[in-house]
């Protein structure tokens, strides 16, 4: 099967994952399937070795009573063992249930109970402890610890190491995979991917072979180089996330992509420097932190180096203007930019491991225009795309070369996918990669899937040139007491244009005016503040620093100048800590949980709306 010649998701309607793994084993047995870093060394694993391990683990599952349609949950950090557990579960005819490794015992208990998982894979002793504390561990037939160095004993009767679980199992991988491929159909349920749960309980999106494969394939429709070249990718997002899952599990079955797994996801920055990926996609927050790291290098350079950098940036601005204006670029400017890129920008990109990037995208949140332009000035052709768990891949992408920030592009060039916009602005999508519903939630399924269309819940605006702009979540519109319906996301994006602000949470439901909780950028703001106040020693000090408060006030003032009066932020507080999944206010994929943010920082929110401040702003909120 020549999967690399597939041009439309419609061609995958009869294709399954074990079928593709079997084909890779037959066609490219000695080619590298993936690489794992252990104890400082990179270990290459071939398709033959990979498929051998998958077949043995899948056979061990079946021997232990794992039947077609049974659920196996996986909770663990990024690793080859996660990949093996995922692929083995699918090849055994089962359903993989992804659990974010940062989940609390209560969250894990919900996932295991909701999915009725009979087998549980855990990455390490840490995740084992969380599963054991979830209240659902005793219901699992087996809890399998993936860490190859784990030697725990007598933890619980149903807990076993991966090595012990597979002992005595040795199957003919060719025959086993052919048999499993023969029993599978593209419409079989193979995965339950829980949504981030920004509001309410997470919903389990049910995905089939077709969902996963066509969703992953959609990415290749707007990146043809992915089908013609071999690419390196660092899997750094949690593997329960659809992007990481595609990079590790399905895209390598469709194109020549080699996933790289670092020692831990916490070391992803070093892993990226090691690997020098040619393909990279991540939320804007990652690009912001990498840009801050590069700018820190620039600011600490010698006067001569700074002068050279500023000259290169002057040339880069002219070159970018040329590219975005259309027509034929000025050959002299292009030649000068090539020199600047080689001498100035590529060495700076090397500081974060980006010097060989050929394909790079951002998604999951709007990219601040200044941040996107900065990367383009440095020579990285960064683009935006839109996707969600329920459609697995992407249906919108910036196709133009060197696109301007502010849109998520146009619908993908694949007739199998359709995108439409309702009268109220909600975008709906249909295509082969859609999910088939929410596990155990028929009413939510009926609301999201209607006559084959996915109702995304996202409000979009289509510009005069056909470019889509993401406005906000349909349910996240703020209604002020003045009767204004306001998009908090658009305001937050304006605020995040500041290099000193990494995140903002706009508040104002039922209030007369808008306020915001601000997370300052740890690197940029600390560097700025320490040069002015020697008393600032740690992140928490920034919230109480008068000079930092005044500086952020000025940054918000800049954002307010670009906003309508009703959209302007009247007051703010700097958060005393960084937002993170660990403190419950961010999802594992870095989306804000607004309700949890307001609850955790209730005292700060209340201080934004006390009587004294209300008196101060009364004049401003009157129309």
Number of domains: 3
Shape: globular
CA radius of gyration is: 25 Å
CATH class of the largest domain: Alpha Beta
For the largest sheet, list the strands in their spatial order: 7-6-5-3-4-8-9
Q: If you consult CATH, what is the topology of the largest domain?
A: Rossmann fold
* pLDDT averaged over residues: 90
Please name the CATH architecture of the largest domain. 3-Layer(aba) Sandwich
Strand residue percentage = 15-25%
**Helicity range:** 25-40%
Which class of secondary structure composition applies to the elements? alpha/beta
Low-confidence stretches: 611-623
Q: Terminal Cα separation, in Å?
A: 66 Å
Main sheet, how many strands, which sense, barrel?
7 strands, mixed
- DSSP helical segment count: 23
Number of strands: 26
Descriptive notes:
With 623 residues, this protein is of the alpha/beta class. The chain has 3 domains: 7-221 and 238-256, Rossmann fold (3-Layer(aba) Sandwich); 282-355 and 357-473, Rossmann fold; 477-621, ANL, C-terminal domain (GMP Synthetase, Chain A, domain 3). It is 40% helix and 19% strand. It contains 23 helices and 26 strands. The chain has a 7-stranded mixed β-sheet, with helices on both faces. A hairpin with a 5-residue loop joins strand 22 and strand 23 (485-486). The longest helix is centred in the middle third of the chain and has 23 residues, at 303-325. The chain is globular and about 65 Å long.
Layout of strands and helices, then pairs:
Blueprint: H1 17-27, E1 32-38, E2 41-46, H2 47-63, E3 71-75, H3 80-91, E4 95-99, H4 105-115, E5 119-122, H5 125-132, E6 142-145, E7 159-161, H6 162-165, H7 173-183, E8 189-194, E9 204-208, H8 209-221, H9 225-228, E10 231-234, H10 242-254, E11 257-261, H11 268-275, E12 279-282, H12 284-299, H13 303-325, H14 331-350, E13 359-362, H15 369-377, E14 383-386, E15 396-397, E16 410-411, E17 418-421, E18 426-430, H16 442-448, E19 449-450, E20 453-462, E21 468-473, E22 478-479, E23 485-486, H17 488-495, E24 501-507, E25 514-520, H18 522-530, H19 539-542, H20 546-560, E26 569-574, H21 594-600, H22 602-608, H23 611-621
Helix pairs in contact: 1-7, 2-3, 8-10, 13-14
């Amino acid at each position: 099967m020549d999967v690399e010649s597939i041009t439309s998701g419609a061609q995958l309607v009869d294709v399954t994952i074990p079928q593709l793994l079997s084909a890779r084993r037959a066609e490219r047995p000695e080619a590298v399937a993936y690489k794992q870093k252990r104890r400082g060394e990179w270990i290459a694993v071939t398709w033959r070795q990979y498929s051998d391990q998958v077949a043995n683990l899948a056979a061990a599952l079946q021997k232990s009573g794992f039947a077609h349609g049974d659920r196996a949950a996986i909770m663990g950090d990024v690793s080859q063992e996660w990949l093996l557990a995922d692929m083995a579960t699918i090849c055994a005819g089962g359903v993989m249930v992804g659990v974010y490794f940062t989940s609390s015992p209560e969250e894990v208990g919900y996932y295991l109970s909701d999915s009725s998982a009979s087998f549980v894979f855990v990455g390490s002793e840490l995740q084992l402890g969380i599963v054991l504390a979830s209240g659902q561990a005793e219901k699992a037939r087996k809890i399998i610890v993936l860490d190859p160095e784990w030697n725990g004993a007598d933890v619980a009767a149903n807990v076993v190491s991966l090595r012990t679980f597979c002992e005595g199992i040795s199957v003919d991988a060719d025959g086993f995979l052919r048999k499993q491929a023969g029993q599978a159909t593209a419409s079989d349920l193979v995965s339950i991917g829980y949504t981030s749960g920004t509001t309410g309980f997470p919903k389990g999106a049910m995905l089939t072979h077709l969902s996963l494969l066509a969703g992953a394939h959609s990415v290749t429709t707007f990146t043809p180089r992915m089908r013609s070249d071999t690419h390196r990718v660092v899997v750094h997002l949690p593997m329960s996330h659809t992007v990481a899952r595609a990079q590790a599990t399905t895209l390598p079955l469709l194109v020549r992509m080699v996933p790289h797994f670092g020692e831990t996801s916490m070391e992803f920055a070093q892993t990226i420097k090691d690997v020098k990926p040619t393909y990279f996609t991540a939320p804007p927050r990652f690009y912001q932190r990498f840009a801050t790291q590069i700018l820190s290098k620039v600011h600490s350079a010698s006067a001569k180096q700074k002068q050279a950098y500023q000259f290169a940036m002057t040339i880069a601005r002219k070159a970018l203007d040329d590219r975005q204006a259309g027509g034929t670029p000025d050959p002299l400017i292009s030649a000068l930019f090539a020199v600047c890129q080689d001498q100035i920008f590529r060495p700076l990109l090397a500081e974060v491991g980006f010097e060989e990037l050929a394909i790079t995208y951002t998604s999951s949140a709007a990219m601040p225009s200044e941040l996107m332009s900065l990367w383009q000035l440095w020579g990285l052709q960064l683009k935006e795309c839109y996707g969600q768990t329920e459609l697995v891949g992407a249906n919108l992408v910036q196709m133009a070369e060197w696109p301007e920030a502010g849109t998520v592009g146009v619908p993908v060039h694949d007739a199998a996918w359709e995108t439409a916009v309702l009268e109220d602005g909600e975008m709906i999508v249909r295509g082969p990669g859609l999910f088939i519903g929410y596990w155990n939630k028929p009413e939510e399924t009926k609301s999201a899937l209607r006559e084959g269309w996915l109702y995304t819940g996202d409000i979009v605006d289509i510009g005069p040139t056909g470019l889509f702009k993401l406005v906000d979540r349909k349910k996240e519109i703020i209604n002020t007491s003045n009767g204004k319906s306001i998009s908090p996301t658009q305001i937050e994006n304006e605020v995040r244009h500041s290099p000193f602000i990494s995140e903002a949470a706009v508040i104002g439901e039922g209030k007369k005016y808008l306020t915001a909780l601000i997370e300052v950028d740890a690197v940029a703001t600390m560097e700025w503040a320490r040069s002015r106040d020697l008393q600032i020693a740690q992140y928490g000090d920034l919230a109480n620093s008068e000079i930092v408060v005044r500086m952020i006030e000025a940054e918000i003032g800049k954002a307010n100048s670009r906003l309508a009066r009703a959209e302007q932020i009247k007051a703010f507080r700097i958060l005393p800590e960084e937002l993170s999944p660990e403190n419950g206010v961010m999802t594992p994929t870095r989306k804000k949980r607004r309700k949890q943010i307001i609850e955790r920082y209730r005292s700060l929110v209340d201080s934004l709306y006390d009587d004294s401040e209300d008196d101060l702003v009364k004049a401003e909120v009157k129309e």
